[in-house]
Every structure is written in structure tokens, then in C-alpha cells.
Amino acid sequence: MNCLEANPAFNAGRGASLNKAGEVELDAVIVDGRTLAAGAVAGLGPVLHPVSVARKVMEQTEHVLLVGPGATAFAVEMGVPILDPSVLVTPEARAEWDSIAAFNQTVSTFYNTERAVPPPPPPGHDTVGAVALDAHGDLAAATSTGGITFKRVGRVGDSPLLGAGALADNERGAISTTGHGESILKYTLASRVLGRMESGRSDARGVLALRSSPTGAVAVELEAMYARLDGGSGGAVCLDPSGDVGIGFTSSRMAWAARGGLRRARDAVVSGIDRTERTNPGLCEVVLL
């Protein structure tokens, strides 16, 4: 996760999006599937590795989530360097902010906002997330993001929230999500995917639920979120307790990679980014591993 946060191609740490005030506000979460311990930060000030601060919340406090100035003060207390924002802000992130700021100003001054057409989206960079299964059979998940460009100051998306941006439980699986944060929050995507993967449990009516594979669970829930929330796109990477991998997305692209897994050699690496041509733009791109 730290190497992804340091990579300016992604939207976490270096390369993070800027809020409406032109500032960096970072969100991250980490979850231990063995103990269900978790730590998260939201609205964190400029640090290179937000997920490391989230881990310190998990390991060094009795809390799960710290936000805003309190999260930044905690990072300082833990010896985490608070950087000059210019260290994290890339030319691409600044150009994206400038484009949206200019559009909003033009719309508010000259046009009816309901009829205006926003500038085309940039090539895009993603929230970063990871799931892992270790040699002891323990699962973990983590997600880290800079949010969305020109977000309202103080806005928190799905990424740092358990059950939305990430979740891990040795008895169920581990998942990290990305996409339209408000949709993922409303749909509690991480919880729904792991719930669909779980087997041997009865629902409120006493009906025994059948287990879905990680690939199937991701596909079904992403499609359902897209339909229920009028085009709320997203993506996810997940693992079940046996190490079976599931990856899918309804966005136009999602960078992903996996090493090992149930049906591959331990060190085999596969990756991708583009989706295939589909008639329905919401149809989930399923990566069979």
C-alpha cells in the first residue's frame, strides 16, 4: 500500500485530489481479519502514507476512526511527517482542479447550471486498495484515497468506513472498493459483497444462504449498485478465506493486479486496466482468476 500511495499515478498520498479550497484531505482504513481490529482516518492533513496513520490508530489507540485536525494531530504525535502540500500535489492534480474551478466559475456567472455541460473527465487516477491472505490463513484489507477533486471541505467518502470502503473477516473474506464514494456508502458495498460470499448462515426468515464465489459476488453487487443508484459505478478486489480472488468493475477502467490465488502458482502475477466493449455501460467487467 505504501508504494501505491507514493506513486503519483494514483489518488492517495502523492497525486491526491484537491478539495474545493485547493487543499489535500486524505482518507484511509486498514482491517485485520483475524481479530476484526481496524483503524481509519478521514480528512487527514498532508502525509505521504495515510494508511500507515490508520494502522497506528488501530494499534496505538482504543479508537477506530479519527478525523480532521484530530487525525492530523495524532499523526504528529506518532512522529509522522506532515509535509508541505506541494510535495503531494502533482501538476495533473492541479490542472484538474483548475479546470473544474474555472468551469464552476463560468457556470455560476454566465450559464444556467442545470443546462451546462461539465468539462470532460481527466484520464483519471484511482483510490488504492489491497487485500491479502498470509501463510497463517489471516486476511487483511486496506484502502487509501485523496477523495474527489473539488469536493466540499470536510467531505468524507466511502474509503475510510468499514463496510463501505473495506472489510476483512477470516470467516467471510476481505475486500477493498473504489468508485463513486457516495454510491458505495449508500449501498454499503463491502458488506454486501462479503455477505454474498458467506455460506452456512440463515437470513431473518430462516432461509439458508448459498455461498457465491468472490468473482460472482463482486459482479452481482456492482451491477445491483449500478442499477439501484442510477449509474453509481465502482470496483472491488476481494479474497475469500481459501484464497480465491474476485475482481470486477463497472467503471470504464480500473487498474488491478493479483499475485497467487487459488488457481495459480504462488508467485504468478496478473494485471489489467481496461474493460472490454459492452453494449450496457454498467455491465460489470469480471476478471476471472
Features:
globular, five-stranded antiparallel sheet, 8 helices, Glutamine Phosphoribosylpyrophosphate, subunit 1, domain 1, 289 residues, alpha+beta
Indicate how many domains the architecture comprises. 2
If you compute it from the alpha carbons, what radius of gyration comes out, rounded to the nearest whole angstrom? 19 Å
Q: What can be said about the biggest beta sheet?
A: 5 strands, mixed
Q: Stretches where pLDDT falls below 50 for ≥5 residues? A: none
Helix fraction bin: 25-40%
- What count of helical segments does DSSP give? 8
Q: What is the CA–CA distance across the termini? A: 21 Å
Structure explained in plain terms:
With about 290 residues, the protein is α+β, with helices and mostly antiparallel strands. It folds into two domains: about 1-170, no CATH class; about 170-289, Glutamine Phosphoribosylpyrophosphate, subunit 1, domain 1 (4-Layer Sandwich). It has eight helices and twelve strands. The chain has helices at about 1-5, 50-60, 70-75, 85-90, 90-110, 180-185, 190-195, 215-230; strands at about 25-30, 40-45, 65, 130-135, 140-145, 165-170, 175-180, 235-240, 245-250, 255-260, 270-275, 285. A five-stranded mixed β-sheet has the order 3-2-1-5-4. β6 (about 165-170) and β7 (about 175-180) form a beta hairpin. α7 (about 190-195) packs antiparallel against α8 (about 215-230). It is globular and about 45 Å long. About 45% of the residues are buried. The model has no long low-confidence stretch (mean pLDDT about 90).
